[in-house]
Design goal:
single chain, elongated, 5 strands, alpha+beta
Length: 142
């Protein structure tokens, strides 16, 4: 489980906006500005415990959801790029020859990647309405 601690900043029905606290290990890390780019990072989480604004809470993200989201965001576009490039090169090879088929491979790969991003965007809009991928508040600390 990926656990973070934070303070509830806002409540909107069953969803809480939680300000994530930087851990002490983050201060020593050379790439902490990548994970925590600003002074305050917010996370939307489901609030089954009924936490209120100002309370310190523990938020958990299930690892399988994190892995699934990573595959959707990185794996699908990469597979679309490779598949589009291979298909476009094989289709273009008999028509334009070996020299120009690489250009068509690039165009086909770029097009398929673009289409995959459109697919991911529409999927994200559908999933955003559910609470399937949202982190969950599992404990009220203070």
């Amino acid at each position: 489980m990926i656990e973070e601690e934070g303070i509830v900043a806002e409540i909107d029905g069953n969803i809480a906006k939680v300000a994530i606290l930087k851990k002490s290990a983050c201060e020593q890390c050379a790439v902490s500005s990548v994970c925590h780019p600003g002074d305050q990072e917010y996370l939307e989480a489901t609030n089954p415990l009924g936490a209120v604004k100002g309370q310190k809470v523990k938020v958990v993200v299930a690892p399988q959801m994190y892995l699934k989201a990573s595959i959707i965001l990185y794996g699908i576009p990469m597979a679309a790029l490779i598949a589009g490039a291979i298909i476009a090169k094989n289709i273009a090879l008999p028509y334009v020859g070996d020299a120009r088929s690489d250009l068509w491979a690039f165009i086909g790969g770029a097009f398929c990647t673009f289409v995959s991003f459109l697919f991911i965007r529409s999927y994200n809009k559908k999933v955003e309405k559910t609470q399937k991928y949202k982190p969950v508040i599992v404990d009220i600390l203070a």
